[in-house]
Write a structure and sequence with these properties.
The protein has one domain. It is built from three helices and no strands. By secondary structure, it is mainly α.
């Protein structure tokens, strides 16, 4: 994975939390932040999926039909 250097501004309380966890867990702050963002993106994926389910123009495929279609592609 390629790394990208970012310059961001955070509330001091968040920075204090990151520093505290990094020190307690003996991990780099960048690892703490990347892990937190990964978890948050999982949460956002769930929110997007729920939003899409609520949309009226979504084509829904019955569960059994979905797997039958997958099996026929193999």
């Amino acid at each position: 994975m390629n790394n990208v250097r970012l310059n961001i501004t955070l509330p001091s309380a968040v920075n204090d939390d990151i520093n505290r966890y990094a020190q307690e867990l003996n991990e780099k702050k960048s690892h703490i932040i990347a892990s937190a963002l990964d978890m948050y993106f999982d949460y956002l994926d769930l929110r997007v999926a729920e939003k899409r389910l609520d949309e009226d123009d979504v084509v829904r495929i019955p569960f059994d039909d979905f797997f039958k279609e997958l099996e026929s592609d193999v």
